[in-house]
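Morning F.,

Quick status update on the modeling queue. The single chain you submitted on Monday has been processed. Sequence for confirmation:
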Amino acid sequence: SRVMSFTAGQLGMLGGVLGSLFMLRWGLPLVLALPLTLAACALLGVITEFVAVRPVLKSLEQHLYVLTTLALALIIQQITAIEWGTEPAPFPRLLEIGEGIWHEKYWLPVLACAVTICALEYLYRRTLLGHAFIAVAEDNFAARALGLPERNLRIGSYALAGAIGALAGFSGGQLLLAFFANGPLLNFYGFVPVALGGLGNNRGAVIGGLALGLFQQAANFTVGGIFSSVAVFTLFIIVLLAAPQGLFGTAASRRV
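Structure tokens below.
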């Protein structure tokens, strides 16, 4: 859809909140709590497409998605605060593996990221559904002319994005806790690597995320405090000035 949805961070936040709800408050096992969390956030992704994206795509001012998705993200955050509470809540241990620096809360998000990237690469490169996703993303008018169900594919992509966001929040729940205010933080730490790596380049986004994390920790160690955030934004601006398409993105060619 070529829409950068501001609900992405809220999906990660809900992955932690719903995971804590299902496992700690309702007492469900992991094998039930994880699918329920993924399904709930996939449904929210579909709602985002219907409520905040589809009406905008029909408008001449398509950049209005910045307002519509941001408004929906704020609604989700406030409803979560009202129903869940405004204090961070604990997230349960999932696998009971590792202690100290080998605690699962450190390596489980990395493992989930690796599995997700490999699965997406397989989807895009080896399956007809993945090829259809890429075709619609490249040129939705041509894809529609070839008979591809562009609307259904777009709905499917938002459901998939919702499930992936939930998996991120669920796997990182022990680090982030179940907290309604995690959404804006996850948006920032999601969009910056995407912009650095290049829009639409999943591998570039992962490399950008790792580079951002290492740079931020180095800045924390060197200058500390608020200056580390200033250093991150400075690096972000410098990179985008030097390579507006991102480090691994390709410049869009204009057809004449």
